[in-house]
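tool_call: predict_structure(chain=1)
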Amino acid sequence: MLFTWVMALLVSISLRVAGIIHPQPFSINHFLVWVLLFGPSFAFLLYFWVRRSFSLNSSI
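tool_result:
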């Protein structure tokens, strides 16, 4: 739990510093937002699907 709080603090500080250094609004890459939102779930889906297919083939 401490690791999570420290990481959140570091991200918060770095975002604050980035906002001070670059105060103008930035353009959002919508593809990057979708990848960051659904990428981890899709990666887990692929991982477990591949793991299941290999485990089923080895038991035959």
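agent: The mean pLDDT is 89. Proceeding to next step.
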